[in-house]
Amino acid sequence: MAKFIQNEFHKSAGTSAMLAGAILVPAAVAGHLAGGGLITRFKMETPAILKLCAVSSFLVACASPLLLLRCDNMPLAGTTVPYHYDGLTGGQVQSRNLNSSCNSLCNCQAEFYSPACDIGTGVTYFSPCHGGCILNERTTNFTQMYTNCSCIGENNTLTDGVCPTSCNKLAPFLGLAFVMVLLVFLSHTPAAVVTLRIVPPSMRSFAVGLEWLFMRALGTIPGPIMYGNFIDSTCIIWQRKSCGDVRGSCWVYDSAGMAITFMVLSIVGNLVSAAFYGFSLLVYKPPTTKKLPVLNGHTVDTNRVSDLPLVNGCAAQSNGRPSMSAHINHGFVHDDP
After folding, report:
1. How the protein sits in the membrane (predicted)?
2. How many Å apart are CA 96 and CA 253, to the nearest integer?
3. Which residues contact 159 (CB under 8 A, 6 or more apart)?
4. What does the longest C-alpha to C-alpha distance in the chain come to?
5. Domains of the chain
6. How many CA atoms lie within 13 A of 227 on its CB side?
7. Cα 103 versus chain centre, distance
8. CA angle 277, 282, 284 (to 5 degrees)
9. Would you give the distance in Å from CA 260 to the centre of its chain?
10. Which of these, 39, 104, 145, 174, has the minimum number of CB atoms within 10 Å of its CB?
């Protein structure tokens, strides 16, 4: 989520990580507590719990298009807008190229991303070098300024950092993300309860271990690799190391492409989860219940001492356990001889 916030809303890495943590941790805790609370409050049986898990996953899939709530790509010279873009007329980039005739003599490299902003047009340059700047100076408020920039218009001055945007979609996105994360974790506790209920007590430890094995093998281990490959497919500027022109990490992602990628992965993953929960509900067979004896019109659970009839003021027992062979005869209880 931190990378998503950083790219879609043009925030710094530190700010994005802080916002992601402020959303993920409380939402995950609330989801776990809500899942366990619903089971306790409504005394849910196994079929009801499976329905809860399926509905939760389905709701997350339905809410996934909210990931398209994003800001537009920032105007970045040579990638999303052409060089000499005035910020007013529409500009289309014929081919993504950070180098231009205005900075051809600067021998600029794409090894380090050091964005600089043209305040007049709102266009960000990959680095002051790509803006054709020759001089730099530090102002009284410790802001780095770059002057004599050949790629800039009348102002011919750049300031350090990405240009600020007027996009105000971050707050509603964070609120909706909180709800989505809560729904994701809502099914975690109920799913664990189902695992413990559907196996014999002697097999519960093995069942939990097997469950975690599949979670690691199918989710935790390949998941980050798969997500990373899909995210990298939306990259528009790669780091190019000077030694042998080796490709490094991604500097800038396509905003629309990343949002669509996250949405599709979320929809597919949660629909698959909902389908498996539904399949589990179809094949689930409730355990058979043992018919209990009746004493004076009331059902007697012979596994509970409090339900057993008394013999000389004590519950009928056999070998330290409630006797299963106590007979009822005219209101009196006697053991088998």
Report:
1. Multi-pass membrane protein
2. 13
3. 116, 117, 119, 143, 144, 145, 146
4. 112
5. 2-72+169-238+256-283 (1.20.1250), 75-164 (no CATH), 294-334 (no CATH)
6. 16
7. 41
8. 90
9. 15
10. 104
How far apart CA 61 and CA 82 sit, in angstroms, is 37
**pLDDT per residue as tens digits for the range 184-227:** 999 999 999 999 999 999 999 999 999 999 999 988 899 889 98
3-state percent breakdown (helix, strand, coil) of the chain, nearest 5 = 45, 15, 40
- pTM recorded for the entire structure: 0.76
Q: What is the DSSP secondary-structure string of 6-60?
A: HHHTT--HHHHHHHHHHHHHHHHHHHHHHHHHHHHHHT--HHHHHHHHHHHHHHH
Copy the structure tokens of residue 166.
Answer: 């007027």
CA 12 to chain centre: 20
**Letter for the amino acid at 294?**
V
CB 237 within 8 A of CB 28: no
State whether residue 259 is helix, strand or coil: helix
What are residue 137's DSSP bridge partners? 145
Contact predicate 28/188, CB 8 Å:
no
Pairing relationship of beta strands 116-118 and 123-125 according to DSSP bridges? antiparallel
Rg (CA), the chain: 32
CB 52 within 8 A of CB 190: yes
Are 116 and 159 in contact by the 8 Å Cβ rule? The answer is yes
pLDDT digits (tens, 9 = 90+) for 150-190: 888 777 788 988 888 888 899 999 999 999 999 999 999 99
**What is the C-alpha to C-alpha distance for residues 118 and 160, in angstroms, rounded to an integer?**
9
Per the rule left: phi > 0, alpha: psi between -120 and 50, beta: everything else, 215 is: alpha
Q: In the block, which residue shows the tokens 């340059």?
A: 125
